[in-house]
Amino acid sequence: MIVKKFFLLFLLFSSVMFSYVVVTINPYYLLVSELLKGVDDVKLLLPPNVNPHVYSLKVSDVKLLAKANLIIANGNLEPNLEKYDNVLYVKNYIPEVFIEHKNPHFWLDPYFVKFYIIPSLSEEFYKMYKDNKIMENEKKLLEKIDIFIKDAWKVLKTDGLVLVNHPSFYYFFKEFGIKIKWLEEGHNVSIGLKKIINTIKGRKLIALFTEKQQPESKIKVISKELKKKYYVLDPLGIDAKNFVDLYYKNLEIIRKALKNE
Prior knowledge:
By secondary structure, this protein is of the alpha/beta class. It folds into 2 domains: 18-148, Nitrogenase molybdenum iron protein domain (Rossmann fold, 3-Layer(aba) Sandwich), CATH 3.40.50.1980; 155-259, Nitrogenase molybdenum iron protein domain (Rossmann fold), CATH 3.40.50. 46% of the residues lie in helices and 12% in strands. The protein has helices at residues 2-17, 26-35, 59-66, 110-129, 133-155, 170-175, 193-201, 217-226, 243-259; strands at residues 21-23, 42-44, 70-73, 87-89, 161-164, 179-182, 205-211, 230-233. It has a 4-stranded parallel sheet, covered by helices on one side. Helix 4 packs antiparallel against helix 5 and helix 5 (133-155) packs parallel to helix 9. It is globular. Keywords: Metal-binding, Signal, Transport. It is found in: Cell envelope.
């Protein structure tokens, strides 16, 4: 009887040891880590220096996912996770009317994050953990988002067009009233370099951007042709200390681009 009780306690202890949340990409890892601070352990699946569009799961990734009590994924972005029945997809929290060009980079729109992503994840977490810390963490994070939005409007009061290599920041620029075109095939568009150069030459081009996780070959050609410097954004926050820090680091890069620094 004593042995049986000990075995049951061991199983309980083991399940607690392996209880954690896995988040597929770094931006949501940063966000979920803040929401679940003091509540549960959070682990990152994909390193932030890789392109999630082309990433394939490794054996170690599969082992990590197998022991997770919950998986947070963006959807339509990272490796297929359909075989797992404990996945929450952020894409399901964004109203379809706001999704354009099948673009899955929802975390880069601070309004999506404020009104849909944070409230929805917080509600799911509270149902699961019943811990008031989640609501306290949510309030703090939303306050930080509000401050960022105010700061961003001060920097982004401009009109014109930005050209990007990959449309990760599509929703971001659109929210702040800046028109955007992109070079990469995919996301429901395919534009040749010659055509895009001719199009841009007749427009008020305010900045050129590529991303740390994307090749720079095409944007270099555009930059040389237009004699305009390009800047490197980081949608996955390789060096970000927290979720809002990801926003501020990119905002500073955009500020420099707009000032041509």
